[in-house]
Every structure is written in structure tokens, then in C-alpha cells.
Write a structure and sequence with these properties.
alpha/beta, ten-stranded mixed sheet, six-stranded parallel sheet, 29 helices, 29 strands
């Protein structure tokens, strides 16, 4: 019989065991081995059955066992030690508290998904895992972050396979009361809510749930509340589901509702109000509109509020392709704002102008969430050096008149939270070498001095560790493979072969990620006979573990999964290549450490960062990857191998795939497998182990989320907080009025005359020329602009490359024609073809850069007319 109502019955813990509840509700247990070991000892069988989830464990353990533990002095001593450790972690000073300068009092970090732990399945892929690692690293460093997201009642889908290998999706219902969450409550004990106005007088309400991620509170908004109509209750039903309006409502709830949730949390708890708002991808872009509305309600005009909001906002873009950005029809967005809907005091046209693609190459009827994110943030970044360059090119239309390399989008290369992803066996080996505290600091904060000691670990210890991890993966794979085949309808009599699937002494390659076409799941199948020979080589075999989910609406991705599965089903090779369904954090934490090689073969440059290879590297796994994302930035032959790319303009996709697949096979046959199986005088693969050692000692400190978050604090959060503080109401109004005046006057700005002291078309290296320029400023004054000389080598089309920019100084008042004279030196500091030009940019102390307004005047006959970033 089916229950008509579901309740969650919580256990009553004996008083001596009450700290267990606090330990279970703080997700630090997900990366703190001592806490997990403590819960394991409560009831090992229940711990395994709960999937390593302390909340589920405490809900299933027998009362008699709890009573027994309440009298167990040894257990209670351990409990006290772990609880005290958490208290010290939560309250003690950490890296952030030791920094000088006026750092942000708090930072609000918005993301549509967060991958904290498998026990809280609110993620689909890399974006969510990155967001989770960002929160954990901020907690370890003591950064006062507040996370904001949505609580999806179905999470992301669970994946299984049909008998013929077709992906099946399942959406289990998640009960928040059974998750490591607590409802945020008002001081009178009632649940805290936020509400959004919908067209037609309707309302979208959402409850606020709190997940405690170490020191960082994570606020999750849940629309499945009784006050909502059925349609509104389903807004947070599943991650990346539904049509355009569904997605728009999710993103309005995340951005607008998220700001309201932060304000509510700070009011209830006394937490410092954020000085910086960080938008992780465009999904949360509407947060800027809510903050503008707050300032307008306090008496600011729209323009002043816009400048104040931009000053304290950081925007991170994760996509290298326009197709990866959420875009909505103009009319759909217009319907949800204005007098009859949300933010009624802001003119709808002002809302639309922030997101419309009104620039060359854009679609002017579409509202682009990333474009709005960039227009509402004074600071923006990509997630690797290569991706930063790709992003500058992709969004260059917002800054017309400037070369792509000047587009104000920097980069902070992603990192991974080592305490989450490093296997306990790897940690113990490091702790044995340098001590537990130094090992913890090495993983959380970084610093190459803490990693240098890897050089002193004996080869035999490293090799034994690698074999142990590989053997553990083999056992995990066999267990998951058996479960998958049973789901596909196989009987026990058909599954005897699984006992011999994979071998703990064979070179093991991992490939696991989402399955969009650009990641090329099936590139390895390009020449099946050649792959089969590699798998079955009599002396140097390889084995491959593959996992990944295709988006439910992506039949092309599902066909790629089916193609791989059908190959792996072949009785000739199924003991050497396996596909594991339902890839998620729990599987990943076993997969990364157990592999010797991590394979990544996307179409360059479509992998924004690709952090899975970082997680593998932290466990001593070597990378085999196309030079894309982070690997393009940090690849060295010490750390692995680079797959050559055939990305020339004249190479068609089929030929490109054929060339790159051949290169992959060649590397495996000629360089990778010989090195793995080659033995030195000690009987160990000396050259392989040296690569493992250098991967850990040299690459390890770079790939840490601790390094990433420190960069965000130093390069983006702190400057944004300083800009936020400088933008008091008078300053914001002054900047808005100045921008309006400059835009109106800019057509009257021109470069009229340029001359140098050069007498010929050639000069010697080290020569300094005198440059004199006359410019018309129209209604502007010299303090409104900066006149620059831009110089450097030139290419065959006279485009300046690797440009140097030198400010010129005014040397007197305007002449009779209203022209101002500027002078300055021009250093000829490079040999070969050299060129220069002159330009005029707006200048103001509150601009993050001269490029920010999108306005520029150059000495060509045709002025570069640009209405500016905020008006296009």
C-alpha cells in the first residue's frame, strides 16, 4: 500500500551524544576524515547503507546502539575531541584573518548549483562542483562568504542504462528534512520566506533552507511550499529543467530572491552585510537588478544605483560558446518586470537594456544573461588563462573600438578542494612525511614549500600506494558493474565474467565528465581495432573506466553514451573497458585516485577549465589531454602528455577527429604504455614514478581551490570592496552624471594631428622619440580624458601586437580652434616592424579601467562611435 503522507521521524539522541547532531549538520564532515571515521564507528553497517551520510545514519541506527555509545567512554572521548576540533575550526583565526588591509566584511556568492557532497545532490557537473569547492576553500581560509542557490526537489537526474545501452533518467524526490539542511527561522520560530511578484497579481514564495558548509552558510531557496499554486511550487523542481519561462523564473528566484534571502539571513543572525556580490555564471544575474531597486527605494536614481551596484559586483563566466548562455525572448522578460510584476519602480526598458544584444553580431530581440552579468559587474573573469582570452573575443562586441585583448575580462584559473578529492591513503602518506597539520595546510592553503617534501618519499612507497588505489578502484568498478548489469536485466548466471573485469596491475585510464558533443566521449573509438589492440596487448595492456551523463534533452549525447556502452559490452574487451552509469561525486572520489592516466580530449578551445584532471593529479594520476583549459596553461612534460590538436581553419571536423585520434593512439602505444611497464634496476617504473612525484610536488600547489580563492580575494574581492566603499551616494551620482555628460560630448572628441621627432622610417633600438598630439575635446576638459600613445610590433596588416600604452601630458590650454596639445616620449624598445597610434579615452578615478565605458577616439577619419558598455 502507498502512504498518503510522508513524515520524517528524527532520532532522540542521549545527552552525551548530542554533539553528533551538530557534527552531522555541518558539511565539514564531507572533507574531514576524523569526523567521518567517528560516524563510521557509530554503526559500520548503517554507515555503509546510508552512503556515508551522517544524517541518514542517525535516522537509522538502533536506539540500543545509541544507548550503548552514550556509556562508551572511549567513544565519548573521541566525540569530544572531534566536536572541539569543529568548534576551533569555526571560531579560530585562519588565513583571511591574518591578512592586512580592509578586506570585504562579507562576500555573497551566487550559483545555480552547488556540489558539496553526494548527500546533498544539487549539482549536475563542473559548474556545481566548482561552486562547492569554492565554498569549502573559503571556509578553510576563513573568508566570510555566504553562498546562495536553489534547492531542487529532484536534484539532477539519476542515470541507468537500458539493455541496449540507452540512457535512462530517474528523478528521485528529495525530502529536505532528510538532507543535511535546517530551515532558516525568524526569531518567533516561523520559517523564513522570500517572495517574488508575478504577472497578474500572483506571487512566487520560497522557503529558505540553510546548509552549513564549514564556516560558510549556504542559503537554498525552495518554491515547493503550500502557499504557492502548483505551477509555482514546481519552479525549483529540478536542475536545468523546463522551458524558457520556467528557467526565467528559476533565475529570477535565484538572483532577486537570493538577495532578499541574504538580507533576511543577515537580519536574523547579525551576519555582516556583503560588500561584494559574486555572480557565478549568468544564471544569477538578476541579483544586480534587486540591488539597484534597493538603492532606488532608498532615494537613489537609477543611474546612480547602477554605478553603486557595479562597483561591488564580480561576474565569472564559465562558457566558451554563445550557445552555453541562457537567452530569453525580450517579450518574456518584459512581461515579468514592471508595474504589474517584479521591481515595479524600475522602468522595463531600463531592465531590458541591460541584457539586450544591441551590438554588432548580436540578436537584438534576445535578452542575454551573461551580457547582463557583464553590464552589472565592474569586474569580470574567465576560469583559465585561455578561457579568459576566448571570453574577451566572445564578448568584444560590448566594447566596440577596442582590440579583444583589452576587453576588461581577466582570468582566475579554477582549482579543486584537495581535502575533498585527495584519497585518505594519499593524505596519510603525506602526513607521514611532514606531519598531519602541515599536510592539512598544504591541501587547504597551498604554498610550494609544503609540497617540496614529496621529493623525499621513497619510490617503493609511492608505487605501493598507486597499486593499492588501483586495486580499490577495481573492486569498486566490479561492484558498480554488477549492479548496472542487473538493472539492465542480466541474470546472475550471465555475470561471472565481472569477477575478472579489470586488473589491479594494468595501466588504468579514466574518462568521466558530462557528455556534450564537444567533449568527444567516443574519440577513443575512432579506430576500434587499434583501440582493441591497445586493450588486449599481451605485454603492455591498458584498461579504461568511462562514466558520464548526457543531458536528458540531448539525444545526440545519449547516442554517444550508447555507442561507448555497446563497444564496452563486447565480450572480447569488456574485461578491459567499462562504462559506469550514474556518475556523481561518490563515484568520482573513487575514480580519480585509482587511475594512472586521466584522459581529456575536448575540441579546443571549448573546455573553459576542466577541473577533473586537477583532482586526478592531486592523487598522483598523470594527465593525457588536449591543450585546453587549465592544461594549456600548466602543461609540462613532467606532468603528462599533450594530445596535438588539428584545429586549423581548413580542417573539417571529421578529418580533425581522425588526426587527433591517431595522435592519441600514438601516444599510448609509443610513449605512455612503454614508460608505465618499463622497470629500472630497482624493479620499479622509475621514470613513471618521477613523473608522479613531479606532478604532486610542482603541479599540486597550483591546482588548489585555496590558491584560487586567495586570488579571488586579492585580485577581485578586495578591489571590489574598496570600489563599493568609495561609491557613496554622492560619488555614485557624480559618476553617473559624469558618464552621461561624457557620452553626450564624445562625438566632439577627436585626434586632429600627430607628429614625432622621427626624420626617417627607421631608427635604432633604444631610441626615444618625442610625440606631439593635438586633440579636440569639445565640451570636455583634460581631466575628463586620458590621451595615450599605443605602440608595439605590427603585423603584416599594420595591427599593433603586444601593445604598450603610454599616457601623454597636456602642455597648454586650447588654441583658437579649441584643440589641446599633448606631448610625451615614445620609446622604441622592440626591434623589427614597429608602429604606434594615439587614442583618447574617458578617465575618472572611480573607473576600474579606461576601457570600461566602451568609448574611444582614434586618429582615423572615421571616429569609433561607441555608446558604451552600459548603453549597448
Amino acid at each position: 500500500m502507498k502512504a498518503i503522507r510522508r513524515l520524517t521521524v528524527r532520532p532522540v539522541l542521549p545527552d552525551p551524544l548530542r554533539p553528533l547532531s551538530d557534527l552531522a549538520r555541518n558539511l565539514r564532515w564531507s572533507w574531514h576524515p576524523e569526523t567521518r571515521d567517528l560516524f563510521h564507528s557509530v554503526d559500520p553497517e548503517c554507515w555503509t547503507a546510508s552512503g556515508g551520510d551522517p544524517v541518514r545514519l542517525l535516522g537509522t541506527v538502533r536506539p540500543a546502539r545509541l544507548a550503548e555509545l552514550a556509556e562508551d567512554r572511549r567513544f565519548l572521548r573521541r566525540l569530544t575531541a572531534v566536536a572541539d576540533d569543529l568548534d576551533h575550526y569555526m571560531t579560530g583565526d585562519r588565513w583571511y584573518q591574518a591578512q592586512s588591509g580592509r578586506l570585504p566584511a562579507a562576500v555573497a556568492y551566487f550559483s545555480p548549483e552547488f556540489g558539496i557532497t553526494a548527500a546533498l545532490p544539487q549539482y549536475s557537473g563542473g559548474l556545481g562542483i566548482l561552486a562547492g569547492d569554492h565554498l569549502k576553500a573559503a571556509s578553510d581560509l576563513g573568508v566570510p562568504l555566504v553562498g546562495v542557490g536553489l534547492l531542487y526537489r529532484h536534484g539532477y537526474f539519476r542515470q541507468s542504462l537500458s539493455r541496449d545501452g540507452w540512457q535512462q533518467e530517474h528523478y528521485p524526490v528529495l525530502d529536505p528534512h532528510e538532507l543535511p539542511l535546517a530551515p532558516l527561522k525568524e526569531r518567533d520560530g516561523t520559517p523564513a520566506h522570500v517572495a517574488l511578484a508575478l504577472p497578474g497579481g500572483r506571487e512566487l514564495r520560497a522557503r529558505i533552507w540553510l546548509a552549513q558548509v564549514g564556516r560558510v552558510p549556504l542559503l537554498l531557496l525552495d518554491s515547493d511550499v503550500e502557499e504557492n499554486d502548483p505551477g509555482e511550487r514546481g519552479v525549483t523542481d529540478r536542475l536545468y529543467g523546463g522551458g524558457s519561462e520556467h528557467r526565467l523564473l528559476q533565475e529570477m528566484l535565484l538572483g532577486i530572491g537570493g538577495v532578499r534571502a541574504v538580507r533576511t539571513y543577515c537580519r536574523i543572525t547579525g551576519h555582516p552585510a556583503p560588500e561584494v556580490f559574486h555572480t557565478n555564471e549568468g544564471h544569477a544575474g538578476f541579483l544586480g537588478l534587486e540591488r539597484i531597486a534597493e538603492l532606488c527605494d532608498a532615494g537613489s536614481d537609477f543611474g546612480s544605483a547602477l554605478e553603486a551596484v557595479r562597483a561591488g559586483t564580480v561576474f565569472t563566466t564559465h562558457t566558451p560558446v554563445p550557445a552555453g548562455i541562457d537567452r530569453f525572448d525580450r517579450e518574456l522578460v518584459a512581461r515579468h518586470f514592471g508595474p504589474d510584476a517584479e521591481l515595479p519602480r524600475i522602468e522595463v526598458e531600463r531592465v531590458l537594456r541591460l541584457g539586450m544584444e544591441t551590438y554588432p553580431g548580436g540578436e537584438p530581440n534576445l535578452f542575454n544573461m551573461a551580457v547582463m552579468g557583464l553590464r552589472l559587474a565592474q569586474r569580470a573573469n574567465g576560469v583559465s588563462v585561455l578561457h579568459g582570452g576566448v571570453s574577451r573575443g566572445m564578448f568584444a562586441g560590448l566594447w566596440p573600438g577596442f582590440d579583444a585583448d583589452e576587453v576588461p575580462i581577466t582570468s582566475v584559473t579554477n582549482g579543486v578542494h584537495a581535502p575533498t578529492w585527495v584519497a585518505p591513503e594519499v593524505f596519510r602518506l603525506g602526513a607521514r612525511q611532514i606531519g598531519v597539520q602541515r599536510a592539512e595546510d598544504a591541501l587547504a592553503v597551498g604554498g610550494s614549500d609544503r609540497w617540496d617534501s614529496v621529493a623525499d618519499i621513497p619510490d617503493r612507497d609511492i608505487w605501493e600506494l598507486r597499486r593499492t588505489l588501483r586495486a580499490q578502484l577495481v573492486e569498486e568498478v566490479r561492484e558498480r558493474l554488477r549492479a548496472s548489469w542487473r538493472q539492465r536485466g542480466a541474470g546472475t548466471a550471465e555475470l561471472g565474467w565481472i569477477d575478472d573485469a579489470l586488473d589491479p596491475d594494468v595501466l588504468t585510464i579514466g574518462f568521466a565528465r558530462r557528455v556534450p558533443s564537444y567533449k568527444r566521449l567516443t574519440l577513443m573509438l575512432r579506430d576500434r581495432e587499434r583501440l582493441t589492440e591497445l586493450l588486449l596487448h599481451p605485454e603492455r595492456p591498458i584498461q579504461i573506466v568511462v562514466a558520464g551523463k548526457a543531458h536528458p534533452a540531448d539525444d545526440g549525447g545519449k547516442r554517444l553514451v550508447q555507442e561507448l556502452v555497446r563497444f564496452a559490452d563486447d565480450a572480447r574487451v569488456r574485461h578491459r573497458i567499462v562504462f559506469l552509469p550514474d556518475y556523481g561525486m561518490a563515484m568520482a572520489q573513487k575514480l580519480y585516485p585509482g587511475c594512472d592516466i586521466w584522459l581529456n580530449n575536448p575540441l579546443r578551445p571549448l573546455e573553459a577549465c576542466g577541473t577533473s584532471g586537477m583532482k586526478a593529479a592531486l592523487n598522483g594520476c598523470l594527465n593525457l589531454s588536449v591543450l585546453d583549459g587549465w592544461w594549456d596553461e600548466w602543461y609540462q612534460p613532467d606532468f603528462g602528455w599533450a594530445i596535438p590538436t588539428a584545429d586549423g581553419a581548413g580542417t573539417d571536423p571529421d578529418r580533425r577527429d581522425a588526426i587527433e585520434a591517431d595522435a592519441l593512439y600514438d601516444l599510448l602505444e609509443q610513449r605512455i604504455t612503454p614508460r608505465f611497464y618499463e622497470r629500472g634496476a630497482s624493479g620499479l617504473p622509475d621514470r613513471w614514478l618521477e613523473m608522479v612525484r613531479r606532478t604532486l610536488s610542482l603541479l599540486g600547489p597550483k591546482v588548489l581551490a585555496g590558491r584560487m580563492v586567495r586570488e579571488y580575494v586579492e585580485r577581485l574581492y578586495t578591489p571590489a570592496a574598496e570600489a563599493h566603499r568609495a561609491m557613496d551616494p554622492d560619488s555614485a551620482r557624480g559618476l553617473a552624471e559624469w558618464k552621461a555628460r561624457v557620452r553626450a560630448a564624445w562625438p566632439g572628441v577627436s585626434v586632429d594631428h600627430v607628429e614625432t621627432s622621427a626624420a626617417t622610417a627607421s631608427a635604432e633600438l633604444g631610441t626615444t622619440l618625442a610625440l606631439r598630439v593635438r586633440v579636440k575635446l569639445g565640451d570636455l576638459a583634460p581631466e575628463d580624458v586620458e590621451v595615450q600613445a599605443v605602440s608595439g610590433r605590427v603585423d603584416s596588416e599594420d595591427r599593433i601586437t603586444d601593445a604598450a600604452r603610454t599616457p601623454l601630458k597636456p602642455v597648454g590650454g586650447p588654441d583658437l580652434e579649441g584643440r589641446w596639445a599633448y606631448e610625451g616620449p615614445l620609446a622604441l624598445d622592440r626591434t623589427g616592424p614597429f608602429g604606434y597610434t594615439v587614442r583618447v579615452l574617458p578617465a575618472h578615478r572611480l573607473l576600474a579601467s579606461g576601457v570600461e565605458t566602451g568609448l574611444v577616439a582614434v586618429p582615423s577619419g572615421d571616429l569609433v562611435e561607441a555608446a558604451g558598455l552600459l548603453m549597448r
